[in-house]
Amino acid sequence: MTEMTIARTELPLPLLRRGKVREVYEVDDETLLLVASDRVSAFDVVMAEPVPKKGIVLTQISAFWFRQLTGTLDSHFISADTNEILRRVPALANHRDIIAGRSMLCRRTDVVPFECVVRGYLSGSAWAEYRKQGTLAGESLATGLIESSRLEAAIFSPATKAETGHDENVTFGRMQTELGKDLADRLRSLSLTIYNFGLERAAKRGIIIADTKFEFGQTPDGGLLLIDEVLTPDSSRFWPADRYEPGRGQPSFDKQPLRDYLDGLKRAGQWNGNAPPPTLPWEVIRATSVRYQDAYLRVTGEVLPAS
User: Fold this and answer.
1) What residue numbers bound the domain in which 27 lies?
2) The whole model's pTM is what?
3) Residues of the chain whose pLDDT is less than 50?
4) Which of 10, 144, 190, 251 is the most exposed place for a label (fewest CB within 10 A)?
5) Which H or E element spans position 273?
């Protein structure tokens, strides 16, 4: 590879959690540092090869949206500016190259154990459920919809958070039962507000946000904060508006080149879809990196910063 990639970080802070993509470090009792690596997963398998700049794209798009949403709702976001992070966390002084551009300083919260999914278009697992049962998250939809149809109104369809494997789509009623009606209603309202906010602004950039998922945390006084990542290519389906055509799957600004390559291997019987993953050719890695960087450019109107 000709570009620096970060597949794993080991920083001089207590490690709270290592996920598929992010490492979460404890700064103090009230503050966390989220570091997005360049790891990439597909079909719930983490690939061996990292994708250059992927972690920077995820962090900086999230930071863009957190700033855009200031005044609309509260979030855990403090800063994604490397100099500011180094000023606040001196222990990282010798690790600038590792954290630059891909790190976010955040307020600590108690994570709500549900993914808050909003769907504006019928795609992915939602299309599969509708095609089989005529429902979405257990709720009946209008008949006659086709793949990638725009829904009359965006639908909130929560999912349980899985440590491994797929999240499980559940009904809103189950969410209300487990969390209580008041909290579940607040989560639905906030999720729909954020989605519609992003949908409107992305449309001005020629992007359709087909669906997305949010995570929330609770503060000790019961407040809700938007946390983790927001409206990124990993958490959302971004479609080019000028190529949108209902009745089929849509091209997207995410890891589609990687999924297409792996689908080809599966059809050819060269990979069974489980770990260990196959070796990725550089052309696929580069195409995936370019796709992520293009998403950042289209969403923000700016070229991805170098650090």
Assistant:
1) 1-108
2) 0.93
3) 1-2
4) 144
5) none
